[in-house]
């Protein structure tokens, strides 16, 4: 009598070991085809003694059903292997990290919006400029200490006969002369945001940083307009109730010149928290940057008559205002690429 058990074992082994869909389809024909092993077993029933026919028939039919199952299972395995995909719909979905704007880009957008609301136009002037733009046009003589190569990075290329050497701009004030010449005549309301470069590296200085430069030139512009604009910016950017104060200072391109401070939001401008000195400001005030009334020589150099128009300008560091807003203590973190720091904002 044909050994059905032996054929079952052999078929199972061959199907499991089949290495491709082609091999499997040959096995399907070998076992389930018209002249296949199963049909051979079924036609052999005539040679089986009558009393065994029923059991024999049941065993062959069971083998046939198992065969279909083995072939189907192996087919799915081989198909998944072929497409390289194993899809288990019971697994939880993947969560991908969400991207966001860098803290500096976000601040640039915020600051731009604050000034655009009061009619300032956002511009962006070169990060690499001639000495003329960075110094000369700003009333800074050749022997000014800021023009020393310890303070400013010069580009190693031949100097322009009139405009001097090329520099990585140490401040955004190079936009003042360009904007006066671009607009032609007052009124001018510029907000120039750009990268600046100075050879410094510590908790509050990076070699590359950003400044935003305000310039306003019109008839009868005074310090009162300047103070009003600074107060407006302080309240909008740092929060309602933030105050500003001006301290006398010196810049070649403004006269009079000031340093601007804002009241510290950590201690409410008192410098004291629960009978202790405020750790953020120590005095109730935080330094924002430089400002002043545009020097008549700078207006003249930009083609504007200082007897008919006046103006003010300021230049503040973006990294520093972010630091002040969020109470951060090391701006080097901004550029560390450390996602744990950056994703907090
Ligand atoms: C200036 O750069 C003047 N051009 C500002 C100005 C413009 C005055 C218009 C008057 C009229 P100062 O060197 O102080 O000023 O720099 C301004 C601000 O830039 C600083 O208060 C600080 O916030 C930021 N800053 C300067 N150097 C760095 C640096 N290495 N890293 C980060 N921020 C810096």
Automatic annotation (TrEMBL):
The keyword Metal-binding applies. GO terms for molecular function: ATP binding; magnesium ion binding; phenylalanine-tRNA ligase activity; tRNA binding. Its main location: cytoplasm. InterPro entries: aa-tRNA-synth_II (IPR006195), aa-tRNA-synth_II/BPL/LPL (IPR045864), Phe-tRNA-synth_IIc_asu (IPR004529), Phe-tRNA_ligase_II_N (IPR004188), Phe_tRNA_ligase_alpha1_bac (IPR022911), Phenylalanyl-tRNA_Synthase (IPR002319), tRNA-bd_arm (IPR010978). Binds 2 magnesium ions per tetramer. Residues 111-324 form the Aminoacyl-transfer RNA synthetases class-II family profile domain. One of its GO terms (cellular component) is cytoplasm. It is found in: Cytoplasm. Pfam families: Phe_tRNA-synt_N, tRNA-synt_2d. Its EC number is 6.1.1.20. Keywords: Aminoacyl-tRNA synthetase, ATP-binding, Cytoplasm, Ligase, Magnesium, Metal-binding, Nucleotide-binding, Protein biosynthesis. Mg(2+) binds at residue 255. It catalyses: tRNA(Phe) + L-phenylalanine + ATP = L-phenylalanyl-tRNA(Phe) + AMP + diphosphate + H(+). It is an enzyme of class 6 (ligase). PROSITE patterns: AA_TRNA_LIGASE_II. Its cofactor is Mg(2+). GO terms for biological process: phenylalanyl-tRNA aminoacylation. Belongs to the class-II aminoacyl-tRNA synthetase family. Phe-tRNA synthetase alpha subunit type 1 subfamily. PANTHER family: PHENYLALANINE--TRNA LIGASE, MITOCHONDRIAL, PHENYLALANYL-TRNA SYNTHETASE. Tetramer of two alpha and two beta subunits. This is Phenylalanine--tRNA ligase alpha subunit.
